[in-house]
Design a protein that fits this description.
By secondary structure, the chain is α+β, with helices and mostly antiparallel strands. The protein is built from five helices and ten strands; from the N terminus they run ααβββαββααβββββ. 26% of the residues lie in helices and 20% in strands. It comes from Mycobacterium yunnanensis.
């Protein structure tokens, strides 16, 4: 009995020896190098599309655009008058509210300045009855050639409905004069400024003439919000 127990003990490798054997096996698997083996779990990255829907890249230092008021407001992601002196260190994403972006209206925008475009688009949205708005054209005065003026053509301008529509457009422009940078309006022989009617103007019985202070020519990066 004692001999049998002794033989059994001899057949079992000591625990220390088993540990050494396991360590050698790991080293052999790693190319017999004494350095530790590190396993990295790399997550697969999913590239974003070049122009993601509803997002805009803005400098990290630029403030978040405040919520637009119920009336129209202009947001320009790159003001024509602003220049970047040095590249920004970082950027972030800003969500664009597609439901509040003003689409291009019925006015041809070539040659118009930003506030004039903003006013033209706003009128197209608020007054869908308007189907024609004139912009840049040759004129002895500088307002139309410089992209500062609009001619909002009134359907059936001499009818009660047409006169009422023209009155509403003038009132709308004057109420939002600061937002549109409105200079003046002329309708049915009356010259208006943001302070109210001033004196008799020349003609303008078939369209409402609106003039803005311009705000500079667009760079192509402007976004116009309601």
């Amino acid at each position: 009995m004692g001999r049998h127990r002794l033989e059994t003990r001899r057949r079992r490798p000591p625990l220390l020896l088993a540990g050494v054997v396991a360590s050698l096996a790991v080293l052999a698997t790693a190319g017999a190098s004494p350095r530790a083996v590190v396993v990295e779990d790399v997550a697969e990255s999913v590239p974003l599309p070049a122009t993601p829907c509803c997002l805009e890249v803005v400098p990290a230092s630029e403030g978040v655009h405040p919520a637009a008021p119920a009336s129209m407001a202009l947001f320009s992601s790159a003001s024509p008058a602003r220049t970047v002196a040095a590249p920004v260190a970082a950027s972030r994403w800003r969500v664009l509210d597609l439901h509040r972006i003003l689409p291009k209206g019925v006015a041809p925008e070539a040659g118009l300045q930003v506030k004039t475009i903003f006013l033209a688009r706003s009128i197209s949205v608020v007054f869908p009855e308007i189907h024609s708005i004139g912009g840049v054209r040759a004129d002895a005065l500088r307002w139309h050639p410089d992209g500062l003026a609009l001619d909002v053509m009134i359907p059936n301008a001499s009818s009660p409905q047409g006169i009422a529509l023209g009155n509403k457009i003038v009132a709308y422009a004057l109420e939002n004069a600061a937002r549109f940078s409105l200079q003046d309006a002329i309708w049915r022989g009356v010259y208006y400024t943001p302070s109210g009617p001033q004196n008799s103007g020349a003609g303008h019985f078939d369209h409402v003439h609106l003039t803005t202070f311009g705000g500079g020519y667009p760079s192509g990066d402007e976004i116009y919000y309601r």
